[in-house]
């Protein structure tokens, strides 16, 4: 799953991929509109001069569904390359391995995965799969921002550039994050659940009792949610990761819009001009960021060592009553520890778009999202724990817009066109370990 056309951010010099957490500073944003064949990307990487001998076109292995949004760019793409698309049965891991061993698709030069929902049937790209790739492969370009399903370091050691498409999803994820951040300050799950409690049931034998419970839930929320809600303005928003997504969140919620004060931590500090333009303050350590923040947003695609970044010890260093939002990867959070922090009231609220065991959502977090706080109308008179009704849970929807999918297609093709024409990839993530 993934995360899965951006408002341009201030351009800056890309950093090596040895710092993959931020995926930034953001490169100049290409035009990712449908069929952007005359975009800045096209001018940056023009087609070969006419008349040049091309006895054999490079082969591109297209895994997943056919192109849907960018037929113009695909016409350019398929004219320049021989595109081979294995069917769904051939993409199952055992058959895919057999095909690679047989050299069924010959000496292909690139792997192209334009959609996040298909093309992953072979499972994780690990040593078993990567070791079978022909030495002719130069680039693997995929939809999606996360890349925990592929060993990018091993690809780099084999001389293969891996390109993600996080740039295409950045605006959608940032917009979604804004809604989730506001939710943690205004307790939207509590307000929404109370307005529809209890759900209408045709089996109800006591409509009067049901109506009384509904009115009590509504009135309780109306009276008490105000005492727990705050305006975001003036509060410190702490961003873990300050790449394309983090920068766009800062632009949307900082001064003068929502008036939040922006702090960030990243493995590499951003240029002063970028910090000044976004009114962002760098915190040299994660601890410093947590201690300074009223709401912490996880916006980094991976942790340096592959282990959870938000653990019980990390959560203990959050300010009492702080808020937490995750639009990055579910595997970066110890969800039991997060539930503990919410149940004890150490965290006031949370919002999670990604989950450690998707499509299953942690049951304690589900309970915290659906039970109403300070409401004794449940059977047995049980009072839910302090965190109840203050957790927003969504289904890995942050990057999911039509515009994002258009950008996934366009950017994946542009990355392959750039590399196979001898230029530089647009969104490479493993250049720091590339060996060629």
UniProtKB/TrEMBL annotation:
An annotated Gene Ontology molecular function: hydroxypyruvate reductase [NAD(P)H] activity
Top-rank lineage group of the source organism: Eukaryota
Keyword NAD tagged: no
Name of one Pfam family that matches: 2-Hacid_dh_C
Keywords: Oxidoreductase
Alphabetical list of InterPro entries matching this protein: D-isomer_2-hydroxyacid_DH (IPR050223), D-isomer_2_OHA_DH_cat_dom (IPR006139), D-isomer_DH_CS (IPR029753), D-isomer_DH_NAD-bd (IPR006140), NAD(P)-bd_dom_sf (IPR036291)
CDD domains associated with the record: Mand_dh_like (cd12168)
Region (Disordered) residue spans: 1-56
Domain D-isomer specific 2-hydroxyacid dehydrogenase NAD-binding stretches: 218-365
Signal peptide: none
GO cellular component: cytosol
Domain D-isomer specific 2-hydroxyacid dehydrogenase catalytic: 125-430
Family the UniProt entry places it in: Belongs to the D-isomer specific 2-hydroxyacid dehydrogenase family.
PANTHER family: 2-HYDROXYACID DEHYDROGENASE-RELATED (PTHR10996), D-ISOMER SPECIFIC 2-HYDROXYACID DEHYDROGENASE NAD-BINDING DOMAIN-CONTAINING PROTEIN-RELATED (PTHR10996:SF281)
Protein name: D-isomer specific 2-hydroxyacid dehydrogenase
């Amino acid at each position: 799953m993934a995360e899965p056309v951006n408002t341009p951010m201030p351009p800056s010099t890309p950093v090596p991929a040895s710092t993959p957490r931020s995926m930034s500073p953001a490169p100049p944003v290409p035009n990712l509109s449908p069929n952007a064949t005359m975009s800045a990307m096209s001018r940056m990487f023009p087609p070969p001069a006419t008349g040049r001998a091309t006895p054999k076109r490079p082969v591109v292995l297209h895994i997943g569904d056919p192109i849907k949004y960018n037929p113009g760019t695909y016409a350019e793409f398929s004219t320049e390359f021989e595109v081979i698309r294995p069917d769904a049965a051939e993409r199952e891991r055992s058959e895919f391995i057999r095909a690679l061993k047989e050299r069924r698709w010959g000496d292909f030069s690139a792997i192209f995965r334009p959609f996040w929902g298909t093309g992953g049937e072979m499972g994780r790209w690990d040593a078993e799969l990567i070791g079978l790739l022909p030495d002719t492969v130069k680039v693997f370009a995929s939809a999606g921002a996360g890349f925990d399903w592929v060993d990018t370091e091993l690809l780099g050691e084999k001389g293969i550039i891996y390109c993600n498409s996080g740039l295409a999803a950045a605006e959608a994820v940032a917009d979604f994050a804004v809604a989730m951040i506001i939710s943690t300050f205004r307790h939207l799950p509590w307000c929404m659940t109370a307005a529809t409690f209890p759900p209408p049931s045709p089996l109800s034998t006591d409509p009067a009792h049901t109506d009384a419970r509904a009115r009590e839930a509504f009135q309780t929320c109306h009276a008490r949610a105000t005492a727990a809600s705050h305006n975001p303005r003036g509060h410190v928003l702490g961003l873990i990761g300050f790449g394309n997504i983090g920068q766009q969140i800062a632009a949307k919620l900082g001064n003068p819009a929502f008036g939040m004060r922006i702090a960030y931590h990243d493995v590499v500090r951003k240029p002063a001009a970028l910090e000044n333009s976004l009114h962002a303050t760098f915190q040299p350590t994660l601890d410093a960021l947590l201690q300074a923040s009223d709401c912490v947003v996880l916006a980094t695609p991976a942790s340096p060592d592959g282990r959870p970044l938000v653990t019980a010890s990390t959560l203990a260093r959050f300010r009492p009553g702080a808020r937490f939002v995750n639009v990055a990867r579910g595997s970066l959070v110890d969800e039991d520890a997060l539930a503990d922090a919410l149940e004890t009231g150490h965290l006031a609220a949370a919002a999670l778009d990604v989950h450690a065991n998707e499509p299953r959502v942690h049951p304690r977090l589900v309970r915290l999202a659906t039970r109403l706080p300070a409401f004794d109308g449940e059977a047995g008179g049980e009072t839910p724990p302090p965190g109840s009704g203050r957790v927003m849970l969504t289904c890995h929807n942050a990057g999911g817009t039509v515009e994002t999918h258009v950008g996934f297609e366009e950017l994946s093709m542009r990355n392959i066109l750039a590399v196979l024409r001898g230029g530089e990839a647009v969104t490479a993530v493993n250049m720091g370990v590339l060996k060629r």
